[in-house]
Amino acid sequence: MKRRDFLNTLALGAGIVLPLGSHAWAATGTGESPTRKKLVVVMLRGAVDGLNVVAPVGDENYLRLRPGIGLGAPGMENGALDLDGYFGLHPALASLQPLWQQKKLAFVHASGSPDGTRSHFDAQDYMESATPGRKNTPDGWMNRLVATLPGTTTPSRLLGIGPVMPRILAGQAAAVNLPNVASGTKADILDRPAIGAAFDQLYANHPRFGRAYDDGRKAHREVMMAAAETPQMQAADRGAPLPNGFPDDAARLATLMRNDPKIQMAFVALGGWDTHVGQGAGTGQLANRLAPLGQGLTVLAERLGSLFDDTVIVVMSEFGRTARENGTGGTDHGHGNAMWVLGGKVNGGRVYGDWQGLEDAALNEGRDLPVTTDFRSVLAQVAERHLLLNDKQLGQVFPAMPQKGPSFKLV
Length: 411
Description:
Protein name: DUF1501 domain-containing protein
Structural class: alpha/beta
CATH topology of the domain at 37-163 and 242-255 and 263-397: Alkaline Phosphatase, subunit A
Shape: globular
Number of strands: 14
Pfam families: DUF1501 (PF07394)
Keywords: Signal
Organism: Massilia aerilata
């Protein structure tokens, strides 16, 4: 196999992306320039337990269903943090309390996909395509969203952070995916002058991959430039190391978005939420996952600075977990969940949604929270009120979405 054919085979393996070294990928397609309104989506893969994230501690059935893993009342050791007298926040998310108190954080409970699947793969696919029940949708809703916005797209306008290009970013519009922000902003092999020049010559005017290669190289240079901190920024850090994991990614993502106005939308995926065994209550497995998540969201909000006023952050998961704990101290695959919405102009400090309680008769199939708010209606409201999409554009991004939206206004 010739070298050019081998490289082209690598590109075709992903279908819509062309590899540019080990740290950056660029999607094929056209581009448009960004606007100042930003959107960050955090996907919790594995189905986080929304009933312990935003716990209905005021419901007498809560501890009946969860005698071993249910959170204690506010004020108790490792108890929930009071939100509104009925719902309580998991204590591992204490770092988010200031945002709640500033009314910049809200939750939508009993939300999710109307499709009843309990398959992680299918449910994530439906949530990323925003077409529940349809497996043949060719693109992701964030890709369709960026394609509807005005202007000329640059490759870095739509950014993903994770090991592979996620389903939600797939489509015709240009996108960039980094394995993670920390490694993705390091120099790669194509930054070596001799090797970079050889690849530039190889793909120059290539009829099929030339545009994708050129877009990807430009996007990589944009990200590298945006990641470079000024001496003033380094001084402000006072030599403090960035936290590990998601807080580190969040801090660097904020730096990218501050330094490069071309980056408008970002997607981050985090795993480890499938807590079938030993989930824990105020401490334990789930708490150990939630703490860095909350810290990372707080870091992102803080590091964005004034840009946070023009940013909406949505946290979602493919489905919730069973209302009853199981025999191994965990929870199984459920249905309804809680979505999180953060931002400088979010109507926060409230738990929204059509909450129907935890009585047995109110549970979906006698075991789960029902979905009373379609996740697409939450996303559509963000797209309409924050990104100013009209009805026609909303129909393109969220096809076959129910016409009736929620009565509450998140933004």
